[in-house]
Design brief:
Elements (H helix, E strand, L loop, with lengths): L1 H7 L2 E3 L2 E3 L2 E9 L8 E6 L4 E21 L3 E27 L4 E14 L5 E6 L4 H21 L2
Antiparallel strand pairs: 1-3, 2-3, 3-5, 4-5, 5-6, 6-7, 6-8
Length: 154
Amino acid sequence: MPVIFDLVRQVNVSDVTFDSGKFSNINVSIPEPMIDTSELKLNSETNGVDVTSDQITAYAQADFKYTYAVLLTATGQANITFNKVKIEAQLNAGTQEVSPSGELVPKISCGKYNIIYNPDDVVITFSSGISSSIANALVNYLKASILQDVMKQV
């Protein structure tokens, strides 16, 4: 398990721009899950192992700027908690040639990697003077589309 989650423990994600706003300095962290929430299956077709972990809690922080009704601009930090996340990964074992000697050494590659979550299980809080009406409009918009763009980059 550490091999997989060392790769996603702390990930910096590219800025995401959307209508009337922007997320920047996005950091996503996915702690290693408990072993009892994970399943490992040997996969002879890929010479690897399929790993599924669920009930993970992932976290993201980002600076944001959002303009509401053209006149109001809110800036601050968004703290996002993704509850009940499921991760599916496929790790494949193989070899690779080391140049210039041509010696073969072990290699692990990731055949697939999916992060699955329900937007209803996401909690977003803002640290700024953002009013509740702006915050509610932004939260619904983020859950509907922007968070998917962020998590695709992890």
